[in-house]
Automatic annotation (TrEMBL):
Lineage: Eukaryota, Discoba, Euglenozoa, Kinetoplastea, Metakinetoplastina
Keyword Chloroplast in annotation: no
Record-stated family: Belongs to the peptidase C1 family.
Organism in which the protein naturally occurs: Trypanosoma cruzi marinkellei
Chain residue ranges for the region called Disordered: 71-90
SUPFAM superfamilies xref list: Cysteine proteinases
Peptidase C1A papain C-terminal domain mapped to chain residues: 2-67
Stated name of the protein: Cysteine peptidase, putative
Domain DUF3586: 76-151
């Protein structure tokens, strides 16, 4: 993509080809825009960043969105008097990550089983702790640590739902919903590195 500077208002895309990081926005500008960090080095665009107009899905920016929450501390918060009315999810000791080569979680699939609540090494060189809830799998990723310490990013993904990736797809299973799938998992791959959806920046 040829881009040097300014707010891009005419980005026509038919498909996505790599991930970028949305880092800011400006709703006060004459043309409101998103600020996005690209992965092509500081020599590209505005020192590695691009500004695109908001509200018109420039460069398909609204497609395949993943959000995260940056944690400030790993300390347990003080107890509150707030009560939760939703039922707690299962507390399985393992989860299954099914990675497939197609976009519909049906072709070229491989299952891998990992323990929950333990520090896992990721394929990107960091580490993660994964927990299962009633409807979501939550991962706390430590991008720069192999020991699950320091700054982390937390995100959640729906269980039992096929998630399209730029190349292929992935689906996660936990607890009673994955009992049948757990029986089919190749036990020799049980402790391979976990493929976190987060990449080192």
């Amino acid at each position: 993509m040829f881009y040097w500077s300014g707010i891009l208002t005419n980005c026509v895309s038919k498909k996505l080809n790599h991930a970028v990081l949305l880092v800011g926005y400006n709703d006060s500008a004459a043309v409101p825009y998103w600020t996005i960090k690209n992965s092509w080095s500081r020599l590209w665009g505005e020192s590695g960043y691009i500004r695109i107009a908001k509200g018109s899905n420039q460069c398909l920016v609204k497609e395949e969105v993943t959000t995260s929450l940056v944690l400030r501390s790993r300390h347990t918060p003080e107890p509150t008097t707030t009560t939760t009315t939703s039922a707690p999810g299962p507390s399985p000791s393992y989860f299954v990550q099914m990675s497939c080569t197609d976009a519909a979680c049906s072709v070229g699939c491989e299952n891998a089983t990992f323990p929950t609540g333990q520090c896992l090494l990721t394929t990107s060189g960091g580490s993660a702790i994964v927990t299962c809830g009633a409807e979501t799998l939550t991962e706390e990723v430590f991008l720069t640590s192999t020991h699950c310490s320091g700054p982390s990013v937390r995100s959640s993904v729906s269980l039992n739902k096929c998630n399209r990736l730029l190349r292929g797809s992935v689906e996660f299973f936990c607890g009673s919903s994955s009992t049948a799938r757990l029986a089919d998992v190749d036990r020799q791959r049980r402790y391979q590195p976990y493929h976190s959806r987060h990449r080192r920046l």
